[in-house]
Amino acid sequence: MVDTKSADIAPPLAMPLPPDRRGRREARVAWFSARAHNALRRPGRFGMVAGIVFMAALLTLIFVPRQAQRAFAALTPRADEWQDTTAVKAELASADAELARARQSLDAARVEALAPPRQEAPVAVLTADQRRQRDSLQAVIAVLQRELARVERSPLPASYRQLGELPELAGESRVRLLLDSLALVEREREEFAALGGVDPIYVSLTTRVNAIGRAIQGVASRRMTAATAALNALKPPPAPVVEVVERPQVDTVAPLERVAAAERAHDALVQRLENQRRVNAALAERAEAARSGASFVAPPAAVLGAALVVALVLGYLGVLIGELRTPLVADGAEIERETGYRTLAVIDSDSEASAERGRRLADELSPDVLDPINSAYQLLYLHISPTGASLPVVTITGAEPSIVARVAANLAAAAAAEARAVLLVDADLKNGSLAAALRVRPGPGVAELLRGEVDWAESIASSLFGREQVVDIIPAGARVRGFRPVADDAFRSDFQRVADRYDLTVVCSPLDRPGGAFTSPVPSADVILCAHAAVTRLADLHASVAGVREAGMRLQGIVLWS
Length: 562
Known about the structure:
Elements: H1 24-39, H2 43-73, H3 86-114, H4 128-153, H5 157-164, H6 173-195, H7 200-233, H8 253-295, H9 300-325, H10 332-339, E1 343-347, H11 361-365, H12 375-384, E2 393-398, H13 401-417, E3 422-426, H14 433-438, H15 446-451, H16 456-459, E4 461-464, E5 470-474, H17 489-499, E6 504-508, E7 526-532, H18 538-550, E8 554-561
Parallel strand pairs: 1-8, 2-6, 2-7, 3-5, 3-6, 7-8
Antiparallel strand pairs: 4-5
């Protein structure tokens, strides 16, 4: 177990993941979805399987149709198998005519049986006196309605006088008295009208005239009501009773039996004709299938398309079966489900952020592996950066040295962009991947420091990571056969002293093999593990996590290279 960078600064601790609350069914669906997604990420194996299947399917689609053409030619029906429907159609026409005649006779019998007796219903009419009385009453009502309407429109003494003088009201003694009173009151009112002005007696006489007029109007209304009641009371005498003679019953049994017999014969002929047509339709389909099959020649484009479709489907199934047998890492969510550690960043190798590098000359001169403006590296830097203190010593490890080197270099670049003093240590003594990626001298470096051949100041090189950003690098150095790189106490103390001068120390130390135990010649308390989507096996990832924990290191999280 190694010491932390400083005794008074606690290194960042890995945040625990919340418990997975999903059920077994949801977890299984997510696992199979990840396998299906990974199957699309293996173009090499997919292309190999699809190519083999494509050739086999193409040969099958070329040679199998020739055998099928011979089999189809034997399916052509013989001439004696066809059914002749001409005679049945003639019989069916005769049966239709007979059925129509039978139904007509049955309808005629039913109409005759249901017809009522032929007799004229008696009609009640008014007598001559009743008709004269009706016409007189209608004339009286019409005159009274017209005059009453005129009085309503123009309630004047002249209108009242004309209404009272109607012949229809001549027999009313009350009307004569009212007309005399109306004339007397009207003469008195004319005398006061000649005096001029508004006189109370004149107003009283006017009110009296209106009252007499309304009384005449009431008598006329009662006379019209009486005439209307008399008109409604006129009724014709009752009509004479006519004796109804019942018609003899009509027998419909014989026509009904004739219709039933005609329908049975018609149905039998229809069924016979349908059977013959069904047989002929089946023979026609067989003949068409034989003719189409014998003469069918698949277009070359269709053959190639079908072979391609089969190859794509079976190729994908083959890759999917391989993925199910040996599952690979799919995405960050699966890493968190399987290991219980957070996915600190997902780095897209095809990110478009590298297009910004051509804007400045300093970016063009910096190593190609650097992409400091990538948000994934910035997120990784922010995760390991404690608030208000210097950054710790962090080791980047993984099964692929090139990916480990790129992640370590870009993490250092992201810290340098934040004006941090950064030291980058290449602990990959076997490959020296970091020095090769950053185009710095391969040595002297960590190997010579472990052997005590050089001083720390002689091993530190510098590299330009931008316009004004310089990162110090300790390369891996030259490896000597038979020398086992083991860090002693003096090396640890010197490394701790050198690391204290920097804000961040990033150690690049790949695993010796996928899933192997974690060993690093450079001491560090915190580790970040790198995994490659669709390349790193889940079993190797579990073994690497277990190896880091067995080595007594703190696993901060996992970086996924997508």
